[in-house]
Amino acid sequence: MKLSRLFHSSVNVLFPVICDVCGKKQAIYPLPICRNCKERMLEGNPPPVRSLEHLRAIWSCRSYEGAVMKCIRGFKYRGNLRLISVFEEIILNFLNENDIRTCSADLIVPVPLHPVRLYRRGYNQSELISNILSKHLSIPVSRHALVKTKNTVPQMGLPRKRRVKNLKNSFAVVDRLNLLGRSVMLVDDIMTTGATLDTCAQELTRSGVTALYGFTLARTM
Question: Which comes out higher in pLDDT, residue 78 or 141?
Answer without folding.
Answer: 141
